[in-house]
Amino acid sequence: MLYYFTASDKDAQRHLNDTIHNPFPIKQCLHLLDNNIVDKLKEYDKHEFVHMWGAVPGPSNKQRWLKLKPGDKVLVYSKGNFLYYGTIFFKTHNRQVAEIIWGTDKKDRTWEYIYFIKNLEKVSFNVKDFNEFFGYSSNFTPQGFSNIEDRRFKLRLQQYESIDEMVHTLNNSFFIGNDNEEEESFHSSLQTKDLSTVTVVETLKPKDKPLLKMINGRYQWIRDKDLAKKALKRAKFQCEIDNQHISFISKASGVSYMEAHHLVPLKRQNEIENSLDVLSNIVSLCPNCHRKVHHAEDKVKKQLLKHLFEQRKEGLFKQGVKITFDYLINSYSIK
Question: What pLDDT, in 10s, does the model give residues 146-167?
Answer without folding.
Answer: 999 998 999 889 889 999 999 9
